[in-house]
Structures are given as structure tokens and as C-alpha cells.
Backbone:
């Protein structure tokens, strides 16, 4: 019997690295106090077992948040377009942690005004990831 593992940390590292390399909006796990808008943060993560008896496969979602102080939707939508392009084109290589990304795609994007000022967007990234052991 293999030890069950979730791909949270390897997936977050891969997404963070891809966003840093292929687009220009700052990306934070922990937002510094002096951070200036706009920026991107990695949000909620879900992981549900969807494998067979001898194959451990997880259906994963990760929310990617876009924060802007701009009063219209244009800035959030432009950043979302860049993020979606990156996450659609760059394969998430998790092999160093003995995981394999079988499928990755964008499930949906939504944007809405913040109560005080600015806009907030949320991209939901989905993937099917296999645990290769370890």
C-alpha cells in the first residue's frame, strides 16, 4: 500500500514559478505590508481522491486571486488574461516530487468590485494529478 499524499506544495510552487517567469504582475504567498496593487495571490486549494484501487489520482482546484485598486474591470481582466494564458500554455511539472500532472485547465474566472475600492478577480485552476509514490 502506498502512502497517500496531496500535491498542494508542489503544485503551488510550479504555479508560482510559472507566473513569476511568464507574466509581470507580482505574485505573493504572503503579501508584504509594503506591497503595491495590483498583485496576485494563491488562495484556496481542494484535493479529492479520484483514483482506482492501485492508482492514486487527485482532482485538484486552486484559486488564484487578482487584486487591483483600479475602479474598473480593465486591469483585473488584463491580468487574468495573462495568467490564464500562462497556465494554459505552461505544463505544471511536478516530477521532482513524484507527481504527474495528467490534465490542467482553467475552470472559470470571475471578477467583482471590492466594497471599499478596486476590483478583485478569481481564477479557478483545475488539474488531475497522479501520485507516483514517494
Residues:
Amino acid at each position: 500500500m502506498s502512502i497517500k499524499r496531496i500535491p498542494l506544495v508542489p503544485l503551488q510552487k510550479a504555479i508560482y514559478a510559472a507566473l513569476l517567469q511568464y507574466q509581470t504582475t507580482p505574485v505573493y504567498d504572503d503579501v508584504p505590508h509594503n506591497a503595491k496593487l495590483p498583485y496576485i495571490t494563491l488562495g484556496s486549494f481542494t484535493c479529492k481522491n479520484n483514483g482506482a484501487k492501485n492508482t492514486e489520482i487527485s482532482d485538484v482546484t486552486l484559486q488564484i486571486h487578482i487584486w487591483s485598486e483600479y475602479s474598473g474591470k480593465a486591469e483585473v481582466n488584463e491580468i487574468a488574461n495573462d495568467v490564464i494564458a500562462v497556465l494554459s500554455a505552461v505544463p505544471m511539472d511536478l516530477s521532482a516530487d513524484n507527481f504527474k500532472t495528467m490534465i490542467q485547465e482553467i475552470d472559470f474566472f470571475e471578477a467583482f468590485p471590492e466594497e471599499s475600492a478596486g476590483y478583485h478577480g478569481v481564477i479557478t485552476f483545475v488539474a488531475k494529478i497522479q501520485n507516483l509514490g514517494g
Remarks:
- Strands lie at 27-28, 39-49, 56-68, 99-113, 119-131.
- Residues 4 and 56 are 8 Å apart (CA to CA).
- The first helix runs from residue 8 to 22.
- The mean pLDDT is 93.
